[in-house]
Design brief:
This protein has 16 helices and 3 strands. It has helices spanning 42-48, 51-60, 66-77, 84-92, 99-111, 122-147, 161-170, 176-189, 196-206, 211-222, 230-240, 247-256, 275-289, 293-310, 316-326, 334-355, and strands at residues 26-29, 34-37, 40-41. It has a 3-stranded antiparallel β-sheet with strand order 1-2-3. Helix 5 packs across helix 6 and helix 9 crosses helix 16 (334-355). The radius of gyration is 22 Å and the shape is globular. The protein binds coenzyme A (COA). The site of coenzyme A has 17 residues, from helix 15.
């Protein structure tokens, strides 16, 4: 297209509404507030399924039977250990660097120790998929232990990945409620269609780059406060609100100053995000059990106030913040937990992209000058 005909093109800001891939992995119906994983409703999945079962569904496109689910679970847990050099690298990072920055570096470093990294065959990709899914939670738990001056722990083969994550992070076995809450949190965060980080992963995979590169790029996209970085900011806000009675004034003040309320609004959902129902429930149950009822009450009042004032609903980051807080995850690690869960979806999308690949390479509209006269450097003022 010549520069003269550029006028006919128009950039779609934020690619809003652009269909950029065919997928069977998940479906977001923003108008009716529905979310499907491989055709199954998220409410059934959140009520009934385990994390391993959900990942099997996302990756294989069908529900596993009992033996398949348990074998898959054991295969993943067996891959949770990290190369010692990666643990050493965690020790070398400055204590104030953000855990998401460390996680991004650690995944990139893992590539150098993975024997299959440059092998893009289907068999090698599934081996890397299991390793990455298992290693990401370990990186997060180990980083927290190291920064707290505590020894890193080995995974317990009796636990699934979510329970192992809590055990390796905190050093104590989670209760039945905590295990289920962590599992549901990871299930709900596992995939969400073509969000910014998943799109990033697919763009990288479409160049036929390796899986570790695609996940490292996705981590960079998830880190931003308009995407996965919102959950940390939600918790900071909730902890900053003195009590339930001050919520309305606090939120009114933010809205008057044109500040965004983190954990609210969504590009696709025009009604309540279906994941909110489950996260709200576990936030309430966990806060009640931990004598942190006031935090959940503040969150509920924030929700009511924002819905009334702006007509926008909480997104997945809102109650995932109070759930994680009640589970003992420090706020600066919230986005890394989102990443650990979303690694399942990123991998499903990377493999779907490889299976029917075409280089993702959009175009832009040139809006710069076209007739400038060149001036040699010696003659420039
Ligand atoms: N707080 C206050 N106002 C908000 C808002 C929020 N969290 N989210 C959207 N709005 C308002 C905008 O100010 C805008 O109002 P205006 O038309 O009067 O200017 C309107 O709603 C549309 O917002 P826009 O930014 O165009 O929507 P988007 O589709 O680009 O944004 C998000 C989607 C997620 C980026 C946005 O809702 C947001 O910034 N949320 C907070 C961050 C967050 O929680 N991210 C996690 C997403 S899962």
């Amino acid at each position: 297209m010549s520069i003269e005909t550029q006028e006919e093109k128009a950039a779609i800001r934020g690619l809003e509404g652009v269909v950029a891939a065919d997928t069977t992995i998940s479906f977001v119906d923003g108008v009716h507030g529905r979310l499907l994983y491989q055709g199954y409703d998220i409410h059934d999945i959140a009520e009934e399924m385990t994390y391993a079962e959900t990942v099997f569904l996302l990756w294989r496109g069908r529900l596993p039977n009992l033996a398949e689910r348990d074998a898959f679970r054991s295969e993943i847990v067996a891959e949770m250990r990290l190369p010692s050099q990666v643990v050493e690298m965690l020790r070398l990072t400055p204590p104030n660097s953000h855990p998401m920055a460390v996680l991004r570096t650690a995944v990139s470093m893992l590539a150098n120790f993975d024997p299959d990294v440059e092998n893009l065959s289907s068999e090698a990709n599934w081996r890397k998929a299991k390793r990455l899914l298992a290693q990401v939670p370990t990186i997060i738990a180990d980083l927290h232990r190291i920064r707290s001056g505590l020894p890193v722990l080995s995974p317990d083969p009796n636990f699934d990945v979510p329970a192992n994550f809590l055990y390796m992070l905190r050093g104590s076995a989670p209760t039945a409620l905590e295990r289920r809450a962590m599992e549901v949190l990871m299930v709900l965060l596992a995939d969400h269609e073509l969000n910014a980080s998943t799109f990033t992963a697919r763009v990288i995979a479409s160049t036929l780059s390796d899986m570790h590169s695609a996940i490292s790029g996705a981590l960079g996209a998830l880190k931003g406060s308009l995407h996965g970085g919102a959950n940390q900011r939600v918790m900071e806000m909730i902890l900053d609100i003195p009590d339930v009675g001050t919520v309305q004034d606090y939120i009114a003040g933010m809205l008057e100053n044109k500040k965004r309320i983190m954990g609210f609004g969504h590009r696709v959902y025009r009604t309540e995000d279906p994941r909110t129902r489950h996260l709200r429930k576990y936030s309430e149950l966990l806060c009640e059990t931990n004598n942190q009822q006031e935090l959940h009450d503040i969150a509920r009042r924030v929700e009511q106030t924002v819905v009334e004032a702006k007509g926008i609903y909480p997104n997945v980051d809102f109650y995932s913040a109070t759930v994680q807080h009640a589970l003992g995850v420090p706020p600066e690690y919230f986005t890394t937990v989102f990443a650990a869960a979303r690694t399942a979806g990123w991998i499903a999308h990377i493999i779907e992209q490889y299976a029917d690949n075409r280089l993702i390479r959009p175009t832009s509209r040139y809006v710069g000058e076209t007739t400038l006269t060149f001036v040699p450097i010696s003659q420039r003022p």
